[in-house]
Amino acid sequence: MKLVVVSAGLSVPSSTRLLADRLAAAVDRTSPADVQVVELRELAVEIAHNFTSGFPGRNLSAAIDAVTGADGLIVVTPVFSASYSGLFKSFFDVIDPDALAGKPVLIAATGGSARHSLVLEHALRPLFSYLRAIVVPTAVYAASEDWGADGLDGRIERAAGELAGLMTGAPKAARPATDEIVPFEQQLAALRPAG
Questions:
Q1: What is the pLDDT of residues 127-160, one digit of tens each?
Q2: By the 8 A CB rule, do 77 and 109 touch?
Q3: Global pTM?
Q4: Torsion angle of the four alpha carbons 67, 71, 74, 80, in this order, in degrees rounded to the nearest 10
Q5: Could you tell me whether strands 34-39 and 140-143 are parallel, antiparallel, or unpaired per DSSP bridges?
Q6: Contact at 8 Å (CB) between 34 and 72?
Q7: Which among 62, 140, 164, 185 has the fewest CB atoms less than 10 Å away?
Q8: ∠ CA(29), CA(30), CA(34), 5° rounding?
Q9: To 10 degrees, the CA torsion angle through 111, 117, 123, 124?
Q10: How far is the first Cα of the chain from the last one, in angstroms, to the nearest whole number?
């Protein structure tokens, strides 16, 4: 199983890369995977040249092949101006729009404040829905105050489990089987105390 991690962090070290690595490790614990990391910072010039020439350079071409050939993706971007970074968007703009159709994707982002957490639902999820990828239900946002705080580890594990399940085709958590549809009023009545 091949898992590709796309990290759009710009600094070294990078909280974006740290989150990407923690997500990849959690997926690998759930279901062992061959993990490859694509650092967009290293491809910035080739991405820009691709827009002007129409052809990817050697390293960008290898990154595109890795992403399109993966069984699943983890994509992590820092938040700039309340959205994903321009480098992150530019990378996915140079990939054929049909190449990610049906591919499981875990979306994640980092930022200085929890106020930017909606970037996951208002920018990242729509982007990958447009590309017809299968976005896992749990997205992971890490603000500065989340590192070392309660909650981040649980979100990482939950999202990683969802991605691993989609990559391996493992059955989802079983819902109780019912042969009939029970009207809401009856379900509500069953919850009321007897008497």
A1: 999 999 999 999 999 998 888 888 899 999 999 9
A2: yes
A3: 0.84
A4: 40
A5: unpaired
A6: no
A7: 185
A8: 65
A9: 80
A10: 56
